[in-house]
UniProtKB/TrEMBL annotation, chain A:
Matching SUPFAM superfamilies: ARM repeat
GO cellular component, one term: AP-3 adaptor complex
Composition bias, Acidic residues: 628-652
Keyword Phosphoprotein attributed: yes
One Pfam entry name: Adaptin_N
Native source species: Astyanax mexicanus
Subcellular location: Cytoplasmic vesicle, Clathrin-coated vesicle membrane; Golgi apparatus
Name of the protein this chain belongs to: AP-3 complex subunit beta
Region (Disordered): 562-656
From TrEMBL, chain B:
Source species: Astyanax mexicanus (Blind cave fish)
GO terms for biological process, alphabetical: intracellular protein transport; vesicle-mediated transport
UniProt similarity note: Belongs to the adaptor complexes medium subunit family.
Alphabetical list of Gene3D superfamilies matching this protein: 3.30.450.60, Mu homology domain, subdomain B
CDD domains with a match to the protein in the record: AP3_Mu_N
Keyword NAD attached: no
Role noted for this protein: Part of the AP-3 complex, an adaptor-related complex which is not clathrin-associated. The complex is associated with the Golgi region as well as more peripheral structures. It facilitates the budding of vesicles from the Golgi membrane and may be directly involved in trafficking to lysosomes.
One Pfam family it belongs to: Adap_comp_sub
Protein name according to UniProt: AP-3 complex subunit mu-1
Amino acid sequence: LHVIMIARGKNASDLFPAVVKNVACKNIEVKKLVYVYLVRYAEEQQDLALLSISTFQRGLKDPNQLIRASALRVLSSIRVTIIVPIMMLAIKEAASDMSPYVRKTAAHAIPKLYSLDPEQKDQLIEVIEKLLADKTTLVAGSVVMAFEEVCPERIDLIHKNYRKLCNLLIDVEEWGQVVIINMLTRYARTQFLNPNINVSPLIERCVYSALAKRKPYVMDPDHRLLLRNTKPLLQSRNAAVVMAVAQLYFHLAPKAEVGVIAKALVRLMRSHSEVQYVVLQNVATMTIKRRGMFEPYLKSFYIRSTDPTQIKILKLEVLTNLANETNISTILREFQTYIKSMDKDFVAATIQAIGRCATNIGEVRDTCLNGLVQLLSNRDELVVAESVVVIKKLLQMQPEQHSDIIKHMAKLTDNIQVPMARASILWLIGEYCEHVPKIAPDVLRKMAKSFTNEEDIVKLQILNLAAKLYLTNSKQTKLLTQYVLNLAKYDQNYDIRDRARFIRQLIVPTDKSGALSKYAKKLFLALKPAPVLESPFKDRDHFQLGSLSHLLNAKAGGYQELPDWPESAPDPSVRNVEVKDSVRAGGTVTLRGRAPGGQACGHCSSSSGEEQKRNRKVVKERRSGSESESEEESESESSESESESEEESESDTDIKKKKKSINLFIFSSSVDPTPSPQVTPVNNFLSSSLVADLEGLSLTDTVLTIAPSSSVRMYELLHRITGEGLAVEYCFSRQPFSPDPHMVAVQIQFTNNTSSETKSLHIEDPKLQSGMRIKEFPEIELLPAGESVNVVMGIDFCDSTQAANFQLCTHTRKFFVSIQPPVGELMVPAFLTENEFKKEQGQLMGMNEISEKLNLGEKCQSDHAIVERVTAKANLSRVPCGSEKENRFAGKTVSSGSLVLVTVARKEGGGAQLTVNCEKMVIGTMLVKDILQALTQ
Amino acid sequence: MIHSLFLINNSGDIFLEKHWKSVISRSVCDYFFEAQEKAGEPDNVPPVIRTPHHYLINIYREKIFFVSVIQTEVPPLFVIEFLHRVAEMFQDYFGECSEVTIKDNLVIVYELLEEMLDNGFPLATESNILKEMIKPPTILRSMVNTITGSSNLGATLPTGQLSTIPWRRADVKYTNNEAYFDVVEEIDAILDKSGTTVFAEIQGVIDACVKLSGMPDLTLSFMNPRLLDDVSFHPCVRFKRWESERVLSFIPPDGNFRLMSYHVNAQNLVAIPVYVKQNISFFESGSSGRLDITVGPKQTMGKTVECVLVTIHMPKVVLSANLTATQGTYTYDPVTKILVWDIGKLNQQKLPNLKGSLSLQSGAPKPEENPSLNIDLKIQQLAISGLKVNRLDMYVEKYKPFKGVKYVTKAGKFQVRT
């Protein structure tokens, strides 16, 4: 086969025509191999390659999605410029293909086409934009990769898809995760505020601190979403994913939260040595900024004699960075064992590490110095040389106390041959010749003798030494200096000749010597600042961690700079997906017929008057809920036919009865959202009296949200007009409420739209039905103008949909508000297996089972849509199911823990049967209504 | 992303090349050879090498260098992780990943590489998906293939790529349904001269071999999940359930896979199963040295310690060793300077001892450092951390599978300094 020749790198291009003929062959293996061949040689034989194009074009129309995909894949891999228009067309078509797999292939094809013809960029960006809006996990990774390659600067394309990407992330395949996380890191840097503004005064930018003083930092919920959704990925088996999350946390998380990544990174150190190498490089950078994070794992960086040298040196770097007053003694003891290693490069690095510890930690400087001096008697020359160099640096910090060491080192010049070490000793003696006045001239004498045989750097230092001695002790050394200068004058190296000439002019007084020679002493014997021993990893963190550029400490091609935090946050509303809708979760889609992804909507709290009107009827629901004494009764009635209840509402004149019927009406109207004629009188009847004080509450039941995992819908608690500038919204976060598991967690967001600050926000005077309980949020002491703050409170609704009423107080005003839960929020997911589900279902028959036939709405024919709609409506979890036609969900009510089981069985022709099994019949009935409504729309 | 891949053997032959974008001349590997020469040991070759126009990211596995060529910024771990995945895939397909097997199965290798990357970006890296498209070679199949002229390329289309659980293929059928789990723990430790523990930790993995029909949904629970400090999972494990209930709930891949790896809480003191008494000394005069090592069981929880092996990397000046072992055999390789003492089972009554003299190169100075000892050992039926599987439940499918859990403790990087 030709493939073998390609693999071996031989040129098989002569056979091209013969091979291309086989393209139309039926046998799949031959076909595949021909593809391989074609892709490899098409560039060289363009004309012939064109022969095969028609085959692929036919493939693109194939009914089988996999054949369509592979045809596109090969077609786009053929690097022949003439077919660019054909490719463009194919990609565009595939991007709107039914099959997500074909769309994924289209995303893969984009960078291929871009590299072939960059002029197509604009068109390709359009395709990318379209694919970014895709909601399947299969496509997400590939399209972000295409985005990074074609148009990484178009950060604006991400806004609308940000929340969706965050939510999908955990289900994307691992390679896609890496790409998405890296991209989101950059995105977050441009869109959110630095979470460490308040915490770290280290940030030099005065602008920051000024900002910090003015208003306290509140993390954007989207920023939080990203951090929360990436955290589980630290547990990935893929090292690249872990690293990607680690760098995201390092670059984006508040200081207090970064610590979680340390454990995961230390785990990676168990992996292959190449992985270790990369991880250690990154850890080394991190340890400089955030030392505390890795301190508990100090011992994991201890070095084994079997580690490869490059790993040893990196570990050493990390250990050095981690050293502080408390652990230095342990670290130094470790270093002592390392010095005895057979690996000399490693020993040299250890000595330097000791030097750095000594400079950084004053307390151990003397200990280190003594240790290093002992090393001077080591038999290995490299060790001695390295010690000399390090000692020189250390001595420079406090030379006065260590003249004996200098003397000791002077003696070493007889033995040490390593040029760098010799040069260091000479420099030391020259610099501190006053401390060793007797030895210095002697050393110079010896050096003068061997001058011609020395290395260049040593020669330069001899010249220096001579010059310094001449200035301090000219009596003894005048002749020697002259001699050395003369030798240097005829040296082969021009640097040395230049230096000699320069020194002679400066120090030897002649009649011609200018003004400079007067200052010779100052020039040579000026106090020199001690060198700072720094980690080579310092400041490397301006490269995005985990990137190739960071590893090389140089910009690699195509590297995207990690932007600095913005000084003030850009408008967060650009990420809102809907127009004018107060839906906050990612990936939401409105069913109200509004175009998703239109213009950026205003602030969530500014819901329009139109919406309020629609909400009024919902308000009544609340009222009826709180007043009707027998909720139970009305619920059971509501399960009767809709028309009956509607008729009843019209005929009945008793007000009380009427209110009850309103409740029924709400349910019926929610099944059929178009207002029916009967509605009008009821609407008028109540809206006039109630709207005034209850305007704040809105339950926009007509809005349906679809979100893949955590769809959170915001409800209005207090409108900003009613609240005199204070807008309050709430949502059911579906998180467990930790202080009391029987309570439903309600997240409340206060937004201060006034120009002055609001003080002491708290709850007062709750009016609750018997059995209901409230756990108030801690009082908010201060809410500055224009800020928002989120708090969580817990409410035990006793498994009923009755409202919890209370007063919301500020320092000036009190507002009556109430929270009424949709029935779907009264439960928490329960994880059952199929067998458990069936068993439980068997026990909840008869009265506890409510079944309803329905016709599925156009948009929810698929499993996926059904699952999304049901879970959006009710906080349930999915139960695995053997049959394809069925979807099962399970949950437990929050207060009493009664099981709620939901089954949706699809039938032919869009029909379906919905069954709810629940001990609490009221809950069951209401849930059936809600889900029915969700599925039929 | 990944531009090209070269496979290079230890003697520097490029025996396979594959390009996912335009062709890059193999002369780019010269930079790699240069770095390799500079590094000496294969372990010391820097994983990332910079050349004027490209970056070379390489890994070394099974005596083969996998050298990939990169042109633009990409997370290096991304590439490294992928290359390891390629090596593992070869191992999975051909039983071992060596030059010979790769050359023998060149066509399959080529097909695999073609499917794993598209334009340099990973496409299908799950072995289950790949096996659906490209059948692994077996003796029987290759015989049938040569006779009938058919191929080992699956005629079916890879539906697994479309599913939400890409790691499992549909329609798995077995006559014997079985699920085996191996809990393997490794002790990483550094002991100092006097035998005190400088550093010790336990790392464990749970490897599974699951051969079950249909789409089983498994739940594995532990008696003491609190022991597990840091975990990483196969993508099939539902992380949310782990977070809330500390059980592993998953639809398993078909065949062998690593379910999870974990790290045992560092606060728990690690039991060190053996102790080592050693005395290695070199004499200044006479160019000789003495060696005396005794190994004995320490905290073994009543189990036998098996497969004990002591490896010592001797200093360069040691020419030969003249030793006597009371148990097991020893070998000394004068070229690599590695002394291996294979002890076998540890006997409580009679402690194994290795004693004798070492002869050094005459005239050379005595080595300053005593070589450290690396110890290998194995304890069957024991997870040294005390981790225990509580139960395994299967849902969705009706049949009764055979279940089994095995525990093994091994020495990981277990080093005694001298």
